[in-house]
Amino acid sequence: MRFEVDPRRARPLPFVFAWAGLVVLGGAGLWTAFLGMGKWAPIVQFSIAAIQTGVVYILFMRLKGAPSLKLIFAVSGFFWLLFLYGIIMTDYSNRQGWPPSSVASPPVLETPAATHE
Amino acid sequence: MPDSAVPRPEIQFATLAQQGDTAELGIWAFLINETIFFGALIFTYFLYRNFYPHEFAVAAKDTVLWCGSVNFLVLVTSSLTMVLGINAAAQGERREMIRWLVLTCALGFAFLFVKGYEYYLDFLHKSVPIVAYEAKPGEGSAGILFWVFYWVATGLHAIHLITGIGLVLYMLLWRIRRGEMTPAYYTPLEVIGIYWSFVDVVWLFLFPAIYLVGRS
């Protein structure tokens, strides 16, 4: 019995290139940790992680050329995650006295007047 | 191939292709849950890192960078070997498939070995909340939050990887041995490959969150 090989599974080279790209990007991320980029460092490093995720999703997880339904399923995880983040942020951004100062520094005794406010 | 060995679809499916598509959709539905699960965990990290940037940076300096970097390389390489194993299955190259899958398993164990050694070093440095913890100078009382995240996140990731190794071993020792992975139907392997790559993706985010924060 003969079967046609899935063209996405016929050649190893694209996967090897993707792997090399992931390693290079990983190295770049590591390098940025020593550049003294300050507040920009996590933005750059997590952007690199996001690009790497794209490569893994498209090639290694075979989303390239996949049916639309599979693409919708793959993307919907991140879509729901955005909802989750949005709802959490509305909560935290409206909290008073958060984060509690007692975690970052030794607890301070409050005056009775402050307690009843 | 004898006629009895030709794979047939389960009774609820018309063709093997339909069965395979359904199985792949199933793993993607599962990964939606996993994305939210790890996404929430990483968001908690961002929240506390935003509240206590200095404490997090000081605490994270004690992470073992070389262990994290080696494990990054090991895991990314294991994703490649996994994919090459699936390619071999698609082409009906049984020996190649077994070779790549054994290598994938070996890399998974290598990751766990390095992680285990790192946990040992963390224990020596007293960076294990509740069990053996000592706040380092400048870390304040919020530094422990970083280490709680570290242990929870890497522990959960390791559990996922162990599950992945178990699934690959199941394939090697049961399904492939019985000759069930053929070019006509190798979706179970494809599904495990998707799961394996997702575990790799989680590490792509944990790596900067844990190992690079204290050094930037």
Q: Within the CATH hierarchy, at the fold level, what is the topology of chain B? A: Four Helix Bundle (Hemerythrin (Met), subunit A)
What's the mean pLDDT score of chain A?
Answer: 83
Give me the secondary-structure category of chain A.
Answer: mainly alpha
Structural class by secondary-structure content of chain B: mainly alpha
* General shape of chain B: elongated
Number of strands of chain A: 0
Radius of gyration of chain A: 24 Å
User: What best-fitting shape of chain A do the alpha-carbon axes yield?
Assistant: flat
Report the major sheet of chain A: none
Average pLDDT for all residues of chain B: 93
| Helix content class of chain A | 55-70%
Radius of gyration of chain B: 21 Å
How would you concisely characterize the structure shown here?
By secondary structure, chain A is an all-alpha fold.
Task: List strands and helices in order, with pairings.
The complex is a heterodimer of chains A (117) and B (216).
Chain A: H1 13-32, H2 40-60, H3 68-93, H4 101-104, H5 112-115
Helix pairs in contact in A: 1-2
Chain B: H1 16-51, H2 53-60, H3 65-90, H4 94-124, E1 127-128, E2 132-133, H5 143-175, H6 187-212
Antiparallel strand pairs in B: 1-2
Helix pairs in contact in B: 1-2, 1-5, 1-6, 2-5, 3-4, 3-6, 4-5, 5-6
